[in-house]
Amino acid sequence: MQRTLIIDALAATEAQASITICGWIRTRRDAKEFSFVELNDGSCLGNMQCIVDAGTTAHAQLDQAATGAAISVTGELVASPGKGQLWEIRAQSVTVFGLADPETFPLQKKRHSDEFLRTIAHLRSRTNKYGAAFRIRSEAGQAVHQFFQSRRFSWVHTPVLTGADCEGAGEMFRVTSLEPGDKDVAADFFGRQCNLTVSGQLEAEALAMGLGRVYTFGPTFRAENSNTPRHAAEFWMIEPEMAFADLQDLMELGESLTRHVIEHALAHCESDLKLFDSFVDKGLIERLKGMVAAPFARVSYTEAVEILQKCGKEFAFPVSFGTDLQTEHERYLAEEHFKKPVAVYDYPKEIKAFYMRQNDDGKTVAAMDMLVPRIGELIGGSQREERLDRLTARIQELGQNPEDYWWYMDLRRFGTAPHAGFGLGFERLLMMLTGITNIRDVIAFPRTPGNLEF
Ligand code: 4AD
Ligand code: MG
User: Kind of pairing, strands 342-348 and 364-372?
Assistant: First the structure.
């Protein structure tokens, strides 16, 4: 089907005698002499205005097509005398692919609430807001790849089905297979326990020990039954892992990656970001520009705890050394104290995972979380424990068997090297970029408790 995307037609530099566009009708207005049809094809926020003269073949072909109908329009691209758009199409012919019954089509011209649109996730990409959100998602994903490729990281693909629990937090979804004929018998993975991965980190570490610099970018799963605006059971994570690198290198990487994606979005998603700036989060663009204008902050966990204790604010959870920082603390640090993203490093080892490198003080590990205003934790990572004896002791301290991690220990037996990596939650990054406050609205088909319909 020969067609021009509306994004390209709207950027035309001269009139064209004949052009064909396809899309879904956003609005149709019928006047005596002609009908105005606003068409959107998802390539951009803008609609193409089509004028269909009454009494023409095209008008007869348009027939009953109204909001929601899929059509194509062929006609002349001419300068638009109206406000708001440079070009419009004088229709010569129209094809209707599919009508949408105005009585039952749920997306009418009025503004719909986010809550309502979540119940029709299969249709919401046809609205301005969700179209923009998912285009920004696509651009941000490209920016992530660009960033790592330019730094010579290899994109690696770690398994979704795994026998390991990387975080040791027991938040895994169990996978079962049904034998033919079985209705309810959980057979697991051909006789072995199998989970959906919570993180590709352990495998990424193995690959970093051969390829040097790697990153994953794919879905991960957490069986946490927490109904918050920042947690999903299925979310996309970006996990770089670098050999011959320490915590300083890791903080630099996290800051540069975040900065690069923001800059890319500002440069490539201008009109979509403006929509969010106008209707969702006033001041968003200025805030994003401010974020990339100055270096991010860095503070040790110990200092962060002091700041929280002295700030005079009443938190629901009081803080002292050893407290796992809650979202309220994380947001206070980023939003009110530093007023910009901040990397908090050197956390107490008790509140962090077994694989983090122990510091010489015997109390802390070389971990870092990057906290950002309005979101809280965007990145969590660490330098890894590369010393076999220390790692073995830590696993035993936690009441586990190092043998269960035999291949992970092998990496420490054969040519071990300092290395570091983190995980960045892609949906949280998108919440930061768009000002959307609920994680359910930055992923097309969210997986949160109660959401499995689509
Ligand atoms: O801090 P987390 O749990 O770290 C890890 O999984 C490490 N193994 C990563 C690594 O070092 N390679 O998760 C990393 C990030 C968090 O900072 C957060 O942005 C996001 O993943 N995240 C979630 N995003 C949405 N929904 C959830 N349930 C999330 N859990 C974590
Ligand atoms: Mg974390």
Answer: antiparallel
Give the distance, in angstroms, between the CA of residue 280 and the centroid of all CA atoms in the same chain: 17
CA-based torsion, 283, 289, 295, 301: positive or negative: positive
**DSSP H helix total and E strand total for the chain:** 13, 15
What's the CA gap between 156 and 217, in Å, rounded? 8
Kindly state if the Cβ of 377 falls inside 6 Å of ligand 1. Answer: yes
Average pLDDT estimate for 103-114: 91
Q: For atom 18 of ligand 1, which residue has the closest CA?
A: 425
Compute the distance between CA of residue 415 and CA of residue 410 in angstroms, rounded to an integer.
9
Q: Is 220 exposed, middle or buried (0-12, 13-18, 19+ CB in 10 A)?
A: buried
Give the integer Cα–Cα distance in Å for 56 and 78.
18
ipTM summary value: 0.99
Angular region, 285: left φ>0, alpha ψ -120 to 50, beta rest: alpha
Express each pLDDT in 17-71 by its tens digit.
Answer: 999 999 999 999 999 999 999 999 999 999 999 999 999 999 999 999 999 999 9
Task: Identify the band that residue 331 occupies on the pLDDT scale cut at 50, 70 and 90.
Answer: very high
Given this model, what pLDDT does residue 182 score? 62
- Ligand 1: centre distance to CA 330 (Å): 15
Decide: 426 in ligand 1 pocket, CB within 6 A. no
- Residue 158 near ligand 1, beta carbon < 6 Å: no
Task: Work out which ligand 1 atom sits closest to the CA atom of 226.
Answer: 28
Rounded to whole angstroms, the Cα distance separating 110 from 185 reads 49
Q: What is the tens place of the pLDDT at every residue in 164-208?
A: 777 877 789 998 877 666 665 556 787 788 999 999 999 999 999
Residue 354 has pLDDT above 70, yes or no: yes
